[in-house]
């Protein structure tokens, strides 16, 4: 035999296999992030805790943005989060806006902003009672 094919290795069951994401208690893929850190050549060596920390940070930021976007969707009486809600959530939060100030979100639009000089003037109805009446022809 050439050594290929099914030997005794196929009898091993992996019931006790736990991913690093499960051990760390995060949803983001720790193994994939580790691989990306290595392939990116950000440093010569990558510690075992670096991808776990990165996964936790990414998960926190994602949860924060999605929570604010969900609130924006609910404010607009919608049940689906669209890019507009993400953009509103990020731009209305001071810290997230500072973090993502150079980011353009496709289909996100801009914040509604009308300068006060462009708004119509408020009429003074309370002062018109003192004797000045409208002109009648």
From TrEMBL:
Gene3D superfamilies for this protein: Histone, subunit A (1.10.20.10)
GO CC aspect terms: nucleosome; nucleus
Histone H2A C-terminal domain: residues covered: 94-127
Annotated ranges, domain Core Histone H2A/H2B/H3: 11-91
Subcellular location: Chromosome; Nucleus
Keyword field: Chromosome, DNA-binding, Nucleosome core, Nucleus
GO molecular function, one term: structural constituent of chromatin
Pfam families associated with the record: Histone (PF00125), Histone_H2A_C (PF16211)
Principal location class: nucleus
Subunit structure: The nucleosome is a histone octamer containing two molecules each of H2A, H2B, H3 and H4 assembled in one H3-H4 heterotetramer and two H2A-H2B heterodimers. The octamer wraps approximately 147 bp of DNA.
Entry's family note: Belongs to the histone H2A family.
Name recorded for this polypeptide: Histone H2A
Upper taxonomic lineage: Eukaryota, Metazoa, Cnidaria, Anthozoa, Octocorallia
């Amino acid at each position: 035999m050439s050594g290929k094919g099914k030997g005794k290795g196929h009898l091993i069951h992996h019931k006790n296999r736990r991913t690093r994401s499960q051990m760390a208690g995060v949803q983001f893929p720790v193994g994939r992030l580790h691989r990306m850190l290595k392939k990116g050549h950000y440093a010569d060596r990558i510690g075992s805790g670096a991808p776990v920390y990165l996964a936790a940070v990414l998960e926190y930021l994602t949860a924060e943005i999605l929570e604010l976007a969900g609130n924006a969707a609910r404010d607009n009486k919608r049940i689906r989060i669209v890019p507009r809600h993400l953009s509103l959530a990020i731009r209305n939060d001071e810290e997230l806006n500072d973090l993502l100030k150079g980011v353009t979100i496709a289909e996100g639009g801009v914040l509604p902003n009308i300068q006060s000089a462009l708004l119509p003037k408020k009429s003074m109805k309370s002062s018109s009672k003192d004797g000045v009446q409208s002109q009648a022809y």
